[in-house]
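Homework-ish question, so no full write-ups if that breaks the rules, but can someone show me the predicted structure for this set?
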Amino acid sequence: MVELDSGRARPPGGGEWRSAARTRAGTARGGTGRARLRARASVVVLVSLVLAAVLVPMLSPAPGLVDYTSVRMPPEPGHPFGTDTSGRDLFVRSWAGLRISLLVAAVSTLVSTVLGSAVGAVAGSFGGWVDRLLMRVVDAINSVPHLLLGIVIVALYRGTVLAVVLSIGLTHWATVARVVRSEVLGLRNRPYIDAAISAGAGRWWVLRKHVLPAIVPQAVLSAVLLVPHAVFHETALSFLGLGLPPHLASIGNILGDGRAAVLLGAWWIVVFPALLLVATTLAVSGLAAGWRDRAVPTRRSELSL
Amino acid sequence: MTRGPVEAVLESPEEGGALLDGPSRPLLSLDDMSVRFALGGRRAGETVHAVTEARLELLPGQVLALVGESGCGKSVLASALLGLLPANAWLRGSARVGGADAEEDVELLSASEQVLAGRIRGRRIGLVPQSAATHLTPVRTARAQLAEAVRELRGHEDDGDVDELAGRVGLDPAALGHYPHELSGGMAQRVVVASALVGEPPVVIADEPTTGLDRPLVDRTMDLLGELANRSRGVLLITHDLSAARRVATHVAVMYASRVVETGPADEVFDRPWHPYTVGLLNALPERGFEPIPGHPPALTELDALEREWGCAFCRRRPDTPGVAACDGTPELVSYGTRSVAAHPPC
Amino acid sequence: MLRASGLVAGYERGKRVLDGVNVDLPRGGVRGLAGPSGCGKSTLARVLALLQRPWAGTVELDGSPIRGFRHAASRRQRTAVGVVFQQPRPAVDPRMPLRRVLEEPLRASGERGVPERVAELTELTGLDGELLGRFPHEVSDGQLQRACLARAIALRPRYLICDEMTGMLDASTTAALVRVVDEQVRVEGTGVLAISHDESLLHAWAGDDVIRL
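A: Not a homework solution, just the prediction itself:
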């Protein structure tokens, strides 16, 4: 791989150059290569998962197709993931479920990240009473169990996808706000912020030009960590009958349906959809780790003089 | 520096360790050592010339000051010796750390991480880092940190060892019970120097050890480093601070744009510099005229072309310096007795 | 005149380092300020640059008292006092190439002719123009400090606080930056406070006009 990587190109002139990387093989210093590899593998896995989630349900018969002649069939060539308690093909249904769950999780994560980042950034950089007020709101939200609060919100607009998105999004921004605020507080006393203030930069300028670019990696990271969490919330809501309508094949609905079947020995109803969820989670977090490395220029280049 | 005939004889393995008196074998010898960085991303294809064909020797008892402007490559040289370069670095030539005889010599540039970690760092080469404050762990006392180093490098634990180390760097053993933030800058610096001495390394590398310290503290740290050089130990002092270097250095190497351009005994080089760059640096001192060298150092990515055209990379920046011989265009160091200079023979 | 009287100040929730300090900084000259490390030189620099509120005492800028510090001071007041810190690396945003570092004061104040002024500043401070597209970690301390000085004088401040500006630099870069500042004094009539622990530097720079803390 060394020859293919432009960052490791051999210097011109003479073949007697030794790479500092080769002599250090197997140490922490070789880590950048592995991290890059991991990020690339994550991209490949994630793209395949998303493509499959989009294409498989499109190219196959409707996932809702009930067939009571073949309920709880273990995996076999015709049904690679087996069938569920209503005889529906789990292969198609799992991919369709992944698509819906990811969509709900992604949108609700976006809502909570944008909201949380904005609140955290404003609280952290303005300080004073603004900070105290916003943080009391955050405390209030965090003091109620998220699921309970989510149920209240979803109960107001039952059975719609939007309700589920809002109920997850509006309960999780508080955590993001807290993380972002502490990042901002750490930034506030940096000499380069002092220099900007002295150079005449106003509050909004500092927030836009220095604070936001610095917290984006952290915000993205906490957003990524929220995605699987949001899927679990969607699952819990659906399980309680308050989530997505039962005809929509979300991972939550499938797992909810399969819960009882596991006791009858039909492990595949839970295992395959859960595997898809785990693979997606790992791929997304691998991608996030690589992205965080790229976002800081000092980590981008290996040279600093 | 070229080796005198006596030192050349001592290079042979059978006689090297036997002679205890007289000029000893070099503790550290760099031979045509070069370091390049291959850039990636936006600047893929460019190569940074950080160190070019460096030839240096450190003998016991010497304090060799490596001086030059920031970004000339002197810190990269230190990192290369300790195997701390990033993965995009390329190395050529050799850098030997001398043992009792040639069998014990270790070539640092090709040594594996295992050898460097197990036999070199702390044991053969001690490092005094740039900032004492960031080098010490804030949550443990100075004594605990020294004791850990003693355990690691000497294989046993003994409070007496720690007290003895403290005494050697002029530190009151009672002060060792403090946490780093409770120590004054000078005391923290002493703790760091003491921890560099734990493995009794024959070579101590101090990389900008006085950054951010005030003048009295700089002087004290320098004196401390000067005292480390003895019959069996030498100090490589990397610094941009000429006054500090002048205070303790027995020998000087001046680095400009990745090359060592002048070496020699400290008082001779400081009093009668040969290379126009050394002249320029000395004239920039507040007490010596406060005259900056015009222009700026060349980009380290363009040194190849610059040297092809000019030979001496400095002469395009400042072609004529009064009292300095005209450039003969060869960037390699040429020796004249105990001193050596690139491109500008003594006049 | 930038005047501080009876200043008492310290670290945030920390110990007091300035206790009743008086400093006058007239325009059109360089005044040295000497003192060992830990004596409060940097705290004084931050107060004079309106970046830190003193616990007690007053700061007067050209005859009018300063009531707010940091963002509570008006833009006109803040940009009247430029500041250069000892360490250039933490003083620049690692995500900004040098060109944006130089542009910041100009753009934040809505100045016209930004590219022209940046070119002028580059020339003035002896910054290598080819480095403007580089990120801070890609240039040396010396070049970075030139950029910091360029940023500090971009809006032609009436006063300039150099807090150990050359503490990390080699002799040649030190002498070069001192020349740049002296040129500002000559051309713009800037009042400069040169803070350093290095007596020989202050003597060569400010002559006998050195106060001790």
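Now go work out the reasoning yourself. Hint: Chain C has a mean pLDDT of 91.
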